[in-house]
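User: Sequence in, structure out. Go.
Assistant: Echoing your sequence, followed by the structure tokens.
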Amino acid sequence: MLPEIPEPAHLKAQRLNEFYGEADAARIIAVSLQEFGTGLAAVSSFGADSAILLHLIAQVQPSLPVLFLQTNKHFTATLRYQAQLVQELGLTDVRDLLPDVSALKTHDPLGALCLTDKDRCCDLRKTQPLALGVAPFQAWFTGRKQSQAATRNSLPAFEAVGQHIRINPLKDWGTEQLEAYREAHHLPPHPLVEQGYRSIGCMPCTRAVSDGEDQRAGRWAGSVKTECGIHLNGLEQHLQHNGIKGAGA
């Protein structure tokens, strides 16, 4: 008997989008759990809207691994919020992904790289750790949404990242739907939201936004940078460079 050939990630993402791309978030999550089983995780920033996706996941599988990029540059408020959500939602497998210590000593010994080379800083503190963190999994959830910025307005439910699949259950949720869900389920807001922060990342590279601005306008303000890299080609490149394949691939 010939060995079974795994379905390529881009074809699997295409198939899932055809059948479930317009399904609601709960259905996308349920289908993903059935499709990927133990090869599934979630990536969360524990930022402004993170409680919604984490609550949806916790309703069906609170033991799902949740990966958090601990860059050591977060707001103290974010770390407190993380601890609060973990306890209130009953999440049982939250994993901190840390940057490589030797790489930081070589490339960012003073911890100030974010001021001089933001792309390199994000690569060291986010993209590289995430590549290693998602390596054991076939797929992972994110909380990305089309409404967050113009760069995300065509975001699909399922997308291939090399041999892995990234899943965006909240892709078509807007501010009103997010807020209605939060209120209906009595989810605590991130404490910085009241201060005008709508997209919350590392403290040195995040500011509050004004009315009329994109939610992500406060990220790397004053530069041309719009993404940290974990949702761009950098992640796939690191996965390929390290020869990393998804579980079951």
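User: And one key feature?
Assistant: The first strand starts at residue 40 and ends at 43.
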